[in-house]
Amino acid sequence: MSRRVLHCFLCLGIIYLKTGGFSRVLALGASLICSRIPGLAPRQRVICQSRPDAIIVIGEGAQMGIRECQFQFKHGRWNCSALGDRTVFGKELRVGSKEAAFMYAILAAGVAHAITAACTQGNLSECSCDRGKQGFYAQANGWKWGGCSADLHYGLGFSRVFMDAREIKHSSRRLMNLHNNEVGRKVLERNMRLECKCHGVSGSCSSRTCWTTLPKFRELGFILKDMYSKAVQVEPVKATRHKRPTFLKIKRAHSYRKPTDTDLVYIEESPNYCEVDPVSGSAGTQGRICNRTLPHHPHGCELMCCGRGYNTHQYSRLWQCHCKFSWCCSVRCNTCSERTELHTCK
Ligand SMILES: *[C@@H]1O[C@H](CO)[C@@H](O)[C@H](O)[C@H]1NC(C)=O
Ligand SMILES: *[C@@H]1O[C@H](CO)[C@@H](O)[C@H](O)[C@H]1NC(C)=O
Ligand SMILES: *[C@@H]1O[C@H](CO)[C@@H](O)[C@H](O)[C@H]1NC(C)=O
After folding, report:
1. Where does the signal sequence lie (predicted)?
2. Which terminal residue of the chain, N or C, has fewer Cβ atoms less than 10 Å from its own Cβ?
3. Is 123 in the pocket of ligand 1 (CB under 6 A)?
């Protein structure tokens, strides 16, 4: 769709831009469009103007990241929501918490994934399949590179240039965000797949061609969720001459270890996300659906509602049941009903 849309935009000056769940028809040029996309840093607007085809894919990558975040945290008090303005990256958590660490990593991975997929499908003008992997023999393994290998290098590079351009203030949060962006991209890089096809008489597999493909984004979501639960707290270290924080170290007495690229890092302890708090980015849990019969589960009403109690909503559910097929050709059903309860936090 993006190609067609852009074509239309170039010819008529109309683009139907879909970002963050809202759609708008804008009858504007590229620079105006880029200036109206919410939440872009100045450097990102410049990139947007020079690569308007990529900006749509970036929006899709960010959406994929946000949806995955919501899936992974659907049972948590923090469900991936934040307060504040809507941006192309959703509502951003502009704090130093573990949750922000996860958000940054999954968005950076989402953008790299989407750009790489768009390259492979021929949707972007500046990239396609990985040329370095076409027609060459992988000497050690006895097969030949063939097909269309995903150009991950391009996708990662694009994500690095674009997503890292968000960080404009020299602060310890900048170091944290840049680190977590890279963790997200590394997770993608480490989970690339190799697919192969056999050649030879009647499937004898006397030779093989192989190519790299992207992993399912869901897999990356689970891996990052696991990293989130093991995230490490860090603190900034300032080089003596400048006042600026120059790198991060793990916050532990007598430790001078820097975090590695498999550590999601955070600076501040998380709030409990019970109440609305604009400072920590907590949207609170009022109105969240909870499960009354799960006492010690995060989704149970006790924990979800933080002891405030819950409201009970009763409704009846109707559906077709006991269906019988009679010759020929009709189906008769009864209507069954059930009273159901739904609980939401006070
Ligand atoms: C590539 O473009 C096609 C057709 O315009 C679209 O259906 C597909 O989703 C796009 N793929 C990616 C990864 O953006
Ligand atoms: C997440 O929680 C907020 C605040 O309680 C709620 O408004 C929002 O609908 C929830 N989002 C999802 C995706 O469940
Ligand atoms: C609550 O949890 C129980 C046990 O896991 C499950 O059977 C039930 O469907 C859940 N109820 C709701 C409303 O999600």
Report:
1. 1-21
2. N
3. yes
